[in-house]
Amino acid sequence: EIGPTEMRAGFFYNEDGDLIGMGDLLMNVGDEEDARRFELRFGTRLYGAFLAPEDEDVFSIGIGGEAEYFFNQARTVSAKLGLFYSPDIVTFGSADNVKDVSLRLMAQMRDGTDVFVGFRVFEVDLPIDREVDDNVHVGFRRSF
C-alpha cells in the first residue's frame, strides 16, 4: 500500500565551501498503522551543487529511499538508513554520478523536532572521485 508523500528541502555546506541544495519527494510504502516499528520511503532526490575547489556546478536527479526502525512503541527513538544514487544519465555538469548514504540514530524531542547523531558518505564522481562529506554529524531536524 502506498501511503502519504513527503516533500522535503535542505542544504549542505562544508569547510571546502561546497554549497549543495537538496529536495526530496518520498512516498511511504506499507500500511499507515501508527504502531508499526518499521517504515520504508522511496522516491527521488534532486541535487543542485556548487563545488567550490573545482569551480564546478552539478545538477542531478537521484533515486533511492529510507528505511527507519523505531525502537519503542511511542516511536520516539529510531535508526534511519538513507540511500540515494544519481546515475550518469541524470547527472549534469562534469560529474558522472552522485552517491549519498547516511545512517542516523534519532530521538524525538517534541512533535516535529528530532535530534540526531549519524554518519554520512556523500560523493560526487568528477574526473576524480570527490568526497563532499565523510563524517559524523550531530544536529536537529524540524518538520512542519
Shape: globular
The overall average pLDDT, rounded, is 91
- Measured on Cα atoms, how large is the radius of gyration? 16 Å
Structural class: mainly beta
Helix content: under 10%
**Low-pLDDT segments:** none
Number of strands: 9
Sheet with most strands? 9 strands, antiparallel
Order of helices and strands: EEEEEEEEE
Provide the β-strand percentage band: over 45%
Distance, first to last CA: 24 Å
Question: How many helices does DSSP assign?
Answer: 0
Describe the protein.
By secondary structure, the protein is mainly beta. The chain contains no helices and nine strands. A hairpin with a 3-residue loop joins strand 8 and strand 9. The radius of gyration is 16 Å and the shape is globular. The model has no long low-confidence stretch (mean pLDDT 91).
